[in-house]
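To the structural biology subgroup,

Please find below the input and predicted structure for HP domain-containing protein, which we are adding to the shared reference set this quarter. The sequence is reproduced verbatim from the submission form. If anyone notices a discrepancy with their own records, reply to this email rather than editing the shared folder directly, so we keep one authoritative version.
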Amino acid sequence: MTFWKALGSTGPIKGADEVEDDSLYDFKTTSEFSLHVVSDASGMLKVEKVSSPPFEKTMLKTEDCFILDVGSEIFVWVGKGCTKQEKLSSMFYAQQFLLDSGRPDWIPITRLVQGAETPIFKSQFYNWKEENASDGQDYAAYERGNIAPTKQQKAVDLGTLVSPRGIQKENINIHKEGKVTIWRIENFKHALIPKEQYGVFYSGDSYIVLFEHHRLKPITFYWLGRDSSPDEKGAATLLIKEIVEDSKHIRVAQGKEPRGFLNLFDGKCIFKLGGVSGYKRLLKNGANRTTFLYHVKGTCAEDTRAVEVEPLSRNLNSADCFVLNDSINKILYIWYGKGSETIEQKHAKICAQFIIKVEDLQQAEIKEFHEDQEPHEFWDLLGGKTEYLNFPELQHNVKEPRLYHCSNSSGTFQVEELYNWSQEDLMMDDIFILDIFSCVFVWVGPESNDIEKKMSYETALAFVEKAAELDGRPRDTKVVRVLPGCEPALFTCWFQGWKSGSGDAYERNLALLKEAQANTQAIVDVREALQEIVLPEGTTFPYAVLCRRPLPNQGKGFDMSRLEYYLTDDEFFVVFNMTKGEWEKCREWKKMEIKKKLALF
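Predicted structure (tokenized):
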């Protein structure tokens, strides 16, 4: 009777044939599920609905991010080839989805990286089939027990990271005998540019580059300048179909040009500041510009390029070559840094000759000299001789720098080497290790978590130990942590065309860091940084402290999954009624149950 009283009355009970079938209810619920794509392929960031159920795995494209809304949970799927803007914006839009729907704010939003999808996510897709991981990571490795499955952490393969790397393979088939045609985007239309200008790209413009070969499917590159407007970038994407109906489309962001793209120009490729219409050689005071400086950098003929920088002596770098164009006197100066490679010196000559051609500098003179042998007029053209990047590390036996991406967004900590990298690769929610042989930098994004920080610091230290065995560098090679916005010159000089001025996306992100980093030293030894997030071994606290929140120092340095181990052996026995050795033999679910009762989680 208590049961019926709680319900209000015994009332008539409907039969099964009088109510809707459970499957119909399920259909009504799942019909509200949706899959959305977050993409900036058009030049502007857009969020568009892709499908309602049923969902198929083929809908997920590696070059974009996707938001899957299944009512009780929202998933953000991050493709391996997505852009930085897509990655950063996808979580914001997922939160907006939740806010607009009026659902409780405790509805979980789960971020997943391609190749590391959870069983719950996979179950939302019809006939999801696993593929063999192409990057050598075992994403199917789980530790089974009476608790929810957790991924098993694998040791970082330091030997592979330190060993000489091979050339990154590209799925771009380019033949020298093919035909190349280039259009520049002007007023939402594609304008054919003269062949004499092929290989010249302006950072304020966007281009369409068509490669045709009688035995291959056409390839259409749409090159997007760093300072090109969103409208121009979007137009470049849309206008491709007007040029050729059936071709392979490849998006190329400035600074991320693949070798196949650069091969089209046979080593004659320069990237200028501004746009064609805005590149009228004007200084800030309105005077005509007459001096232009190009930074030549690369490791081989296929990836060496010339990028225009401000004509100031501070922009010189002993590790590379530079070409200075004095357009008034028709003189081109080639400056060979002490640490520059032979291939860079050769390409600097090609670049100078190409500039003479495209700038129509008939009978121009080329003057070549090595660092410390500069004529006085060279410095005069650069506004006078000032300090520049001429550290010993940049002058002798210069090693090719290598950049590694560290993240645990897939559920386990992974380290991946990046190829053809640029400043745009430095994402605020992850950590990067830059190895320049004489020093190892650990660049820490402010949105990275403590686990990533701890494991990245430990990996960098172990990296140096392993490298000392394999390449002979000193075991006491410096390993330092750097924070965004405070990068030293020895760090930034390896990023061609590094931008630190106001207005770019990187600088805008730094505005968010000022308060958080106010009392944090920007450049410190990694061992000191490690102490900030890991308590010294053997540190103990009484139970009365560990069960309260907040923990001392806001919990920094505490391993929240092992709080019980900060108890002394004697107090551990008093609190748990067992020794630490006996505790180790307990099942994980039992440990969690006890720790919840004791508020140690």
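Summary notes: Residues 33 and 70 are 5 Å apart (CA to CA). The chain has four domains: 26-130, 179-391, 402-499+508-532, 543-597.

Regards,
Lab coordination
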